[in-house]
Design goal:
Elements: H1 16-19, E1 23-25, H2 33-48, E2 60-62, H3 71-88, H4 116-122
Parallel strand pairs: 1-2
């Protein structure tokens, strides 16, 4: 899913949250992504009735799939591999170490310098 899922009340209608083992909140660089991540984690807790766990331990990952080596995608990969190994008994345990690093858009040219190259050519 993406951060633009609609109003917070829409989360109650999304059946995916009832059945999913893991949730990827893609396009995490969009405005409102942190709020969406918080809301999805809370709704996941409600749907699965796991009140005693911290929000940060919920299997909801903010990702930027279009970005190479995105920490959110890497953490999602590790969790998917571990979950598949757990459910199938296959020897697919990943040696990747999960980090606390959040997905963040990495810009070649910073956003405040969007016209940087145009300015150079104009000069």
């Amino acid at each position: 899913m993406t951060p633009e899922y609609g109003a917070a009340s829409q989360l109650e209608k999304i059946d995916m949250l009832d059945f999913a083992d893991l949730i990827a909140l893609n396009k995490f660089d969009k405005r409102g992504a942190l709020d969406a991540l918080r809301d999805v984690k809370k709704q996941y807790k409600r749907n699965h009735q796991i009140w005693d766990k911290e929000d940060d331990s919920m299997p909801v990952y903010g990702t930027i799939a279009s970005q190479f080596n995105d920490p959110g995608m890497n953490n999602l990969y590790k969790s998917v591999m571990d979950r598949v190994a757990e459910k199938t008994g296959a020897p697919l345990k990943s040696s990747y170490k999960i980090s606390k690093e959040m997905s963040e858009k990495i810009y070649v040219i910073p956003p405040n310098r969007t016209r940087y190259l145009s300015e150079i050519t104009e000069e």
